[in-house]
Amino acid sequence: MHYPTVIVNGISVRVDHDGRYSLNDLHAAAVMKGEATESQRPGEFLKSRQIKRFCRALSDATKIASVRTIKGGKEQGSWGLELIAIRYAAWLKPEFEIRVYNTFREAVLNGVSNMTRLNRLDLLIANETKEVSKCARTMNKWGVGGRKKLLSGVRDRIIDQMDPDMVAIMQGAAK
After folding, report:
1. What integer best gives the mean pLDDT of the chain?
2. Is 167 inside a domain boundary?
C-alpha cells in the first residue's frame, strides 16, 4: 500500500512501508518554527503511561505495531501511525497539531481527488478506444478488397456501358 508523503513546515516527513511516520521528522519541523523544544523529543512523548495505553489500543485495533523505535542506522528514530503522529503534534503545541492534522487530511483528500481523476481518465480512454476500433473496422471494410473495390467495380461497369464520347466529356468536366 502507498501512504501519502506529508510536508510540515517545509520538512518532508518520512513514512515506512507500514504507514508509520517519522516522529523525529515532525519534531524537527516543530523545532524549526519554534513550536517545540529540543527536550520534547519523541522518546519523551512515548514514555507517558497514557500514550503507552493509547499505542496498545491502536495496535490492537489496526493489527500492526502503532509505534516502532529503531536504534542506529539510516532509519533510526521513533515511528508512529498517523494517529500517533497527530497525538505527538498535539503534545508539542495545539497550533502545530492543527497544522499536522490539516496536512494529513489534505494528503488524503488529494489522493482521493487523484483517484477520481484517474478513474475519469480511464473511462475516457476506454470510450475513445471503442470509437477508434469502430472507425478501424469501417476503414478495414473500405480498403483493398472491401467496399471501395466493390463500388469501383460497379462504377467501371457503368462507364463500360456508356457512350465513349460521353465518358470523355465527363472526365474533362471533372478536371
Report:
1. 86
2. yes
Do residues 168 and 98 both lie within one domain? no
Q: Which of 93, 113, 133 corresponds to the end of one domain?
A: 113
Q: What is the pLDDT of residues 36-49, one digit of tens each?
A: 999 999 999 999 99
Q: Tell me the C-alpha distance between 65 and 120, whole Å.
A: 36
pTM (predicted TM-score): 0.61
Grid cell in block for residue 156? 467501371
Q: Is residue 50 part of a domain?
A: yes
Given a cut of 80, whether residue 116 has pLDDT beyond it is no
Name the residue range of residue 151's domain.
118-174
- All cell numbers assigned to 129: 478506444
pLDDT of residue 150: 84
Total of domains in the chain: 2
